[in-house]
Structures are given as C-alpha cells and as structure tokens.
Write a structure and sequence with these properties.
Layout: E1 2-8, H1 14-24, E2 26-29, E3 32-36, H2 39-52, E4 59-65
Antiparallel strand pairs: 1-3, 1-4, 2-3
Helix pairs in contact: 1-2
Length: 87
C-alpha cells in the first residue's frame, strides 16, 4: 500500500515522530512523509507513532491508497524533500 503521513505535534515530540517516519517512509516536506509499506510495516509504523504522541494534543493523519499512481499531486513553490513517490 502507498501511505502518506502528515503530522502536527508539540515541538518537543517532533524529533521522535521524525525519526519514526524516516525509518519507514521518505521525507517529502516538513511534517510529511510518503512511501510504499507492507501491511506488517504499516502496523509497526502505527504502533511506533502511538508511542511518541499525546493523543489529547497531537494530530497524525495517515492516508492509504493502492499506489502512488492513484494520487494526483500538484506542487506550488519549491520542493522541500523527495517528491518522487516511486522509491
């Protein structure tokens, strides 16, 4: 499955979420990661994220789709990370 993760967390928790996402996905933009994951990797990522956040304050959005070819992406401005969804 192709996954996009977008997070908004308290600044002190950002490094933990950043490290976790980098283990599984490719950095796209400040708090945005994307990439292909197996079902097992997806479960591990969710579990790891849950250990780093405060669900009463932080927000993590995870979008899933069959593949990057099902998503139309438009960039306005400068690319900040790896915007190639096929890695």
């Amino acid at each position: 499955m192709f996954v996009i993760v977008v997070y908004d967390t308290l600044a002190e928790r950002n490094p933990g979420i950043l490290r976790t996402c980098r283990q599984y996905l490719h950095w796209v933009q400040r708090s945005v990661f994307q990439g292909e994951l197996s079902a097992a990797q997806h479960r591990k990522l969710l579990s790891a994220i849950k250990q780093h956040i405060d669900p009463t304050y932080d927000s993590v959005l995870i979008y899933r789709t069959q593949g990057p070819h099902h998503i139309q992406t438009e960039l306005i401005g400068q690319p900040l990370g790896n915007t190639d969804p096929i890695l």
